[in-house]
Amino acid sequence: MTSKCGFVSIIGNTNSGKSTLLNCIIGEKISIVSSKIQTTRQEVRGIVEYNNSQIIFVDTPGFCSSKTALERALLSNFRRAYKNSDVVLMVIDCTKKNWERDIDFLAHERKLKKPFAIALNKVDLLKNKQNLLSIADKLNQYDFINEIFMISSLVGTGIEPLKRYLAENVPESPWLYFENHEKTDQEISVRLAEITRETMFEHLNQEIPYSIYVKTDKVTVTDKKIKLMQSIIVMKDTQKAIVLGHKGIMIKSIRLESIKKMREIFNKNIELKLFVIVRDKWSEKKEHLINAGLI
């Protein structure tokens, strides 16, 4: 049987469930999940085999404007992943009313002529199922959409037919990764930094803007332990004070929760040290965007 291998970009608006879907398909948490906008910044790759196919998923940043250097970097990451993929999977939150704008965002890209599927996500949360059929009818009017799947990435509904479609539509090619490989090619230093950043989103709510980033400065991995140091980069002294919290309570909570998540994912003891550093307007400076892995 001829082997197949290819890249599938997972695209869509913020909070549509792209990262949750990727984690569901892979069977392991490799992309951070948050209700906050623009959680995913870099291309996150997950790898899975299905029959004779090896599918390499790329989770992309949500659609955004291009007003700031940070937003332009996010948009560039999205477009690169989208254009370089073999199959495009667009995730739409079927409980929202603005999904048609998501399609319009891509209308000018139909010339790429590649398999394009829609995953109508969060069907378990939709009270009126007739609305789901109405959305599907409207989507069928777009000639560049090949298939529509109704799924719930949270509970796993409809995932198997979606995986089958993707496996069938990646091109014939030797596999890029050996069997029994890691489920992601993302460096462990990046994965660890993303776990801490996710924890910060959960603890800080709207108090800290999205221009923070986390960098793993040093990591040592042994059979039983991961020892690491990380820097949390903010732009103002006031932001640093919020991250630290009164008498260091906030940073302690972030550290302990991050350790708990890391331990669950890597099944190792974790020793984590966190430092908060102020870098004025880092998100507007190219060298800092490079350090953050955004360009």
What does this structure look like?
The chain has 9 helices and 9 strands. With 295 residues, the chain is α/β, with parallel strands linked by helices. Helix 6 packs across helix 8. The longest helix is centred in the C-terminal third of the chain and has 18 residues. About 3% of the residues have low confidence.
Number of strands: 9
Indicate the multimeric state: single chain
Query: Beta-sheet strand percentage?
Result: 15-25%
Number of helices: 9
Reading off the top of the CATH hierarchy, the class of the largest domain is best stated as: Alpha Beta
CATH superfamily of the largest domain, called what?
Answer: P-loop containing nucleotide triphosphate hydrolases
**Termini gap:** 39 Å
Please give the largest β-sheet: 6 strands, mixed
CATH architecture of the largest domain: 3-Layer(aba) Sandwich
List the strand order in the largest sheet.
2-3-1-4-5-6
Q: Give the helix/strand class.
A: alpha/beta
- Report the CATH topology name of the largest domain: Rossmann fold
The count of domains is: 2
Radius of gyration: 20 Å
